[in-house]
Amino acid sequence: MKNSLSIKVIIALAAISALSACTHRVEVAAKEPITINLNVKVDHEIRVKVDKELDTLFSDDSELF
Fold first, then answer.
1. Do residues 57 and 64 make contact, with C-beta atoms less than 8 angstroms apart?
2. Alpha carbon of 13 to those of 2, 5, 24: distances in Å?
3. Whole-model pTM above 0.85?
4. What is the model's pLDDT at position 6?
5. What is the annotated signal peptide range for this record (predicted)?
């Protein structure tokens, strides 16, 4: 009985080691290079709000600048 158990253990260990030696290989290959075309339109709008006091302060009549 000990002989059959030890043989089963040896076979199980051999099977596990054989299966663990297998490695999976994933390869991604393309015949042509991958091109990415981006058609992007950027619109922006800038709004500046100035108080009337600041407007008069920075006007041409004032001699700050």
1. yes
2. 16, 12, 21
3. no
4. 82
5. 1-20
